[in-house]
């Protein structure tokens, strides 16, 4: 059977509905009706007493209803609302963070007179809605905004997760519904990043809650955040006490091992560019890396003001607002080039970063069976995609990401790639990445004409490949990537000398930064850096390829 066949109907639907690809603003008639309603002294919702109150206080009111376009049922949504000066509006009594709030079905906005703009979303599987309205003194109106789903990933067996969350427990049910998210791991805000305006810490009780039929929140996250990077424990069994941000002792690695000894089975690097990443990888501690992590910021005006600690990027190689995203991907690719198999993960950092919940998310293929255990089981197998925008569903020779294709020495592995793509932003190219380099760059019209297929690719020696889609948005790095597929020829992984040397140089550069209060502290930590140096030195010496 043609491996693209299961995806062909979705491909045709996407092509037949260009509005699915480029998200429209609210229809002009609806926008004009907002303005018209507020400019006339009509009474649609309120009694005379409330009208008089609005008039006297120089305000007006708008009731907004968010519904599913297909069923007409009320939906939980996220809304970004700004006044005519561009200042964020914060309504009372709804979950709010940074520049947005969430509500279910109906919200009544009592606002000062003036012009307002808004954006409304419900996760990346729904169309983006935006518009404006004018509030006149004493005006009242109600409007319904229909939210259109253009892809249902769970029907295809893909279930979304956000692994870096620092939001209040009391808000999580509504937040999960508003972002159409299925799994979240909540951690207490690190002391280094907590502020007076930060939400309350996650509860210390380690528990996993299920909301509805398919939304799971694990209050089991613990994060050791230092200036050299952060390790995230997904399933801690007890509350840990971590050192200050700038402390080298005890090391992040030693505390990670303590978490493992106490029963934690999953440890992630919260950034692919953490200074200590090569040390963690060399120890064999990591189960995943947030390649789409808190460094990817939704609002381009905020992106430069908030970046996690880590090895700085080379602005000549990774310029502009897309630089940090491309740098994180390349750091991860270097690890894959060293013959390592670590699945990519994703997390928004919401509650610490300015992002909404689920802005960066990882989809794991569980089929129809979605449980907390099945999600993590398939994540560890690498059956995942990461995204902060486009929706992709890949098959390579009919297999999901994480699959290992094997062959005898001297044989060639030929791979056929099919992909289903849905996106709210313009994408000009799809990329097939082989061993860290773009092997094929395919225009979207060429991909569509080929029925959702990408060019075949061959391997004469071991390596890996991934499929990537990057939007044309110049202000932010919005992308989706498959987890890697692996090729092993002759029962030996490919180890790149260049990438191994890159990681070794990273370790040496990091070791020069070490500072300790006592010789005892130094000896306790330096042994880990020496072990990492030896690990990467051996990789360089045993490399199988340049």
List keywords for this structure.
546 residues; alpha+beta; Immunoglobulin-like; TIM Barrel; 5-stranded antiparallel sheet; 24% helix; disordered N terminus
Mean pLDDT: 87
CATH level-4 homologous superfamily of the largest domain: Metal-dependent hydrolases
- Domains counted in the coordinates: how many? 3
The CATH architecture of the largest domain comes to Alpha-Beta Barrel
CATH overall fold name of the largest domain: TIM Barrel
Structure description:
The chain has 546 residues and is an alpha+beta fold. The protein folds into three domains: 18-147, Immunoglobulins (Immunoglobulin-like); 153-489, TIM Barrel, CATH 3.20.20.140; 497-541. 24% of the residues lie in helices and 29% in strands. The strands form five sheets. Strands 9, 10, 11, 12, 18, 19, 21, 23, 24, 26, 27 and 28 form a twelve-stranded mixed sheet that branches. A five-stranded antiparallel sheet has the order 3-4-2-6-7. The longest helix is centred in the last third of the chain and has 23 residues, at 519-541. 46% of the residues are buried.
